[in-house]
């Protein structure tokens, strides 16, 4: 049994350990991909997600908004890093005695802890603005509150560095990816790479421009028209300064057309410091691509996406090119790998299984402290 299958099996029915099926969500005001995956999964598993004062960018579809959560029974308090997290609520509503879970979904500097990053953001963004600014649906700038005495009981990290505390949490396959993605035969693009920010993406773009891969290759940025959910379209239009990053909820038609027509999606990583995980491989799996990924520079051992299809994980550009030529010369083998990796990704990395993995770790931590 692989580590991924073992983690999946051990987390089955982990939701049974949480009698209230209710979570208090004190989240970041910025888009946090792994938090969205978890919250979509909790919602699908029948959990009520409660936020204070207003809906949140990461949970708008399922928020139960209250003014004061102090009288509610809930299983734990969940927060996320970046900007706009209402840390002062922990003191204001007497929440320090409740189980506290933190998702660090930020892109970190090498060796930087989430707490050090929060201190850096306190210097970078507006510190403690007026309450009326914090209560706006779309804020005019990014802001921070002081951490105070906050200390999580359980920590999850997306860009988890080797030796770092906490549990790895993948970006995951959001429901929106599945709505526009599909598994299909007869694809016109053999190998697809969509360039974006990051030195490893730049390097892969430059290499593929040298015609090192066989067949039909896509190697350029693509977007098309953005598709927003009706509920949030106006918020996205108001957030033109990219304060909250509502644009990240957009599902770009041209992008999905390319992925839905691709056999292999190349994920070269992003940057040389520990910055590997992102939406791209999960979007690729949702669209039925075999995802050829460089071996992560981050620690993914808790729930490894590399085990979706190990033969598609490469350690060098030459290894990728050799495997690409093999796949191109053996199309039936490639089709089998595409189908099986699609089924595995949908089994392990859609919101419900990721939320069960998350709940299993939370339960273990609560029991260890009991």
List SSEs in N-to-C order: HEHEEEHEHEHEEEHEHEEHEHEHEEHHH
Number of strands: 16
Tell me the Rg in angstroms: 21 Å
Mean pLDDT: 96
Question: What strand order characterises the main sheet?
Answer: 3-2-1-4-5-8-9
List low-pLDDT spans.
none
CATH hierarchy: architecture of the largest domain? 3-Layer(aba) Sandwich
| CATH structural fold name of the largest domain | Rossmann fold
Strand content: 15-25%
Structural commentary:
This protein has 13 helices and 16 strands. With 370 residues, it is an alpha/beta fold. The protein has two domains: 189 residues, Rossmann fold, CATH 3.40.50; 174 residues, Glycogen Phosphorylase B (Rossmann fold, 3-Layer(aba) Sandwich), CATH 3.40.50. A seven-stranded parallel beta sheet has the order 3-2-1-4-5-8-9, covered by helices on one side. The longest helix is centred in the last third of the chain and has 19 residues. It starts with a helix and ends with a helix.
Compact summary:
By secondary structure, the chain is an alpha/beta fold. The protein contains 13 helices and 16 strands.
Outline the secondary-structure elements.
Layout: H1 3-11, E1 22-26, H2 33-44, E2 48-52, E3 63-66, E4 76-80, H3 88-92, E5 100-104, H4 114-124, E6 126-127, H5 131-134, E7 143-144, E8 154-157, E9 167-168, H6 175-180, E10 189-192, H7 199-208, E11 217-218, E12 226-227, H8 233-238, E13 251-252, H9 253-259, E14 262-267, H10 280-286, E15 290-294, E16 313-314, H11 317-329, H12 331-348, H13 351-369
Parallel strand pairs: 1-2, 1-4, 2-3, 4-5, 5-8, 6-7, 8-9, 10-11, 10-14, 14-15, 15-16
Antiparallel strand pairs: 12-13
Helix pairs in contact: 1-13, 2-13
